[in-house]
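Agenda item 2: arginine complex prediction
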Amino acid sequence: MPNEKVVLAYSGGLDTSVCIRYLQTLHKFDVISLTVDCGQNEDFKAIEKKALAIGAIKHIFVDGKEEFADNYVIPSIKSNGLYEDKYPLATALARPLISAKLVEEAHNLRATAVAHGCTGKGNDQIRFDVTIRALDPHLKIIAPIRDMNLTRDLEMKFAQEQEIPISSEAKKYSVDLNIWGRAIEGGIVEDANSEPPTDAFQFVKFDNDKAGYLELEFEKGIPVAVDGQRMKIINLIGYINDVAGSLGVGIVDHIEDRMVGIKSREIYEAPAAVVIVEAHKDLEKMVLTSHELRFKRVVDEQWSWLVYSGLWKDPLRSHLDKFIDATQKKVSGKVKLKMQRGSLRVVGRESQHSLYRNELATYTAGSTFDQSLAKGFVELWGLQSTVANMIDRRQRSEDNKNGGGAGS
Ligand code: ARG
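Presented output:
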């Protein structure tokens, strides 16, 4: 009987490297490693060599950059995707794409199982498992690190015994990276009260005091040009990562609620994501009505939560996308941003769909706004509050007359 086959999502890092060996020796699987390029800018040839050296019988490389940008990052921009108002969802967005590739390759190779290197403590296990099951509930899902309750220390020991090479970065931090951002966990950053050392960061620089600007152009909610140059979204993201990162912009350091109940200290660097979402939100404020904006904030928040919590394939996400897409028809225009020593500020915006009308807003003689209309509006606006307060006052004076407050 030939061994069953498993397709393993392989990053080349510590977790997934020890997974190859465990799947082979413990589960007696033939392991096919799969690496999806979501813009992590790594040496994919070296990753392939490493997988084969550890024991994979075959390695598959998928260039998923464009698909990731078009089908995952762009919808996130349109919905101002930020979990708990802070985290641009980089890792969360990549997991459903990697899951889809795992299932596709498992089908191609007639594998009976897929595997990932997630622990039982994080969100990634949810994103993988839920997406894989939505696509094919018959595939077995194996997560060796979770199943064996392994810690990073144990993995490191096992890797040493098995002569599996570990990078010096992996000894310090647990890192996940794609075009939309980089997450830095583990090691000394687990101390919620200590400032992360500068060596934790790759894009963000700390040695530059100068101010710099970016001008970002959107069409229907999608960034299409930066500083007057039209470019493909992945190049545009790379450009902004460089410029904003060099001006110290893009670090997120917050306490995050994981799905499994753990509060964790999370550090990200995501200059392009932080800049683009800030600019996109600003442009929306110029072109959408206050009613659209108020409702969209609720939808956006729900969208981020769905993505964070691994429910990419839930039909609710596509229903929300329909609403979000409808709002984006007007979100075209330019936003100017100023950056310096890590600060970020929108300093100008324009749009052919702008609802900002200078002739209404101006305090000068040119104003077309009829102030006399405001008087009646204001009176009606506050009508219920006026009545409610009047009734409260009456009640209080009756209570006082009856001897110092009812029932208290
Ligand atoms: N807290 C983030 C999230 O849940 C980042 C996770 C990083 N993942 C990792 N395997 N290092 O999306």
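Discussion summary: The chain has a mean pLDDT of 96.
Owner for follow-up: CH.
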